[in-house]
Every structure is written in C-alpha cells, then in structure tokens.
User: What shape does this take?
Amino acid sequence: MTHDLLTDLRPLLTAEASAEAHATGTEPGDLEQAVWLRLLERLATDGPPLDPPVWLRRAVRAEARRTRRATRFEQPYETDPADDRDRGPEQLALAAARRRALREAVRRLPGRCPRLLQAFLSPEDPTYQEIAGELGISQGSIGPERSRCLGCLRRLLAPEVAARQLRG
Assistant: This one.
C-alpha cells in the first residue's frame, strides 16, 4: 500500500516541487526530498493522509514557505573572506583556529552529519556521486541531508559565536 501511494504521488510531487522551487531559491529535488521525508514521518505516526494529493500540495507549499523563511535570515559573511592570500601571520593563525573550531564542531554533530560535512570540507572536493558512494546513500538525498546537518551545525555554533562576540 505504501509503495503504491509513493508511486502514485511521485509525478504530482515532481510537478508541485518544480513549480514552487524557483520562488524558494532551492532545487526542486531538495524540496521533493523534504516532502518525502514529511510523508514518511506521517506514515510512521498517523498513517496515510485521507486525501493524499491535497496533503501533498499543502506539504509542498508548507516546505517552500519554511525554506523561504530560513533563507530570508541567511546572510553572507562580509568580513571573513575565503581567500587566505595576501594575509599576515595573525590573520592566517586566526583562520587556522576558525577551521579547527569548525572541524571540532562538525565532529560533535549527530548521526552521519560528521562524515557528510567532512566530505564537503575535504581538499579533494569530491562530487556528490563520490560522496554518495562513500557514505552509501543516494545522491539525491545529499542536498537535503547537508541542509539538515548545516542547520544542526548552526544551532551548535550559535551559543559559541554569540559568547565570543560578547567578550569583544
């Protein structure tokens, strides 16, 4: 029954996610993955929705709204360039300390987040296909999982960053 439901909803979800993704600034596949996760969570707790197509449309829109709200608050760092060229010893030491702190925080994350984010931090710059093969997960789930892991990392680092800024 679950397999039939997923098979029946796949074309509708693809269409709905494609229609909503542009407005959220995300990939349709990431939106699809998030809705599939919501559906699987619902199936495990409450069973299938009474009207699956209606539920799916609402879930896509809710996930799109959540994504838009999250991206509204994300801002690029203006004072922390990624390029270490033409920097003095003090700036290089501070950048190295930030990288160490980031790697330590990544190691404290739950589940497979440490391995996933370490792959993204790798100097070899592996492709999604290589990461998926190494971790034994589907290539399509890397984006949503990376997003969840980065959310965990933000929550983990927020108190530390706030405390450091207050010391000033």
Notes: The CA atoms of residues 97 and 119 lie 20 Å apart. The two ends are 59 Å apart (CA to CA). The chain has a mean pLDDT of 84.
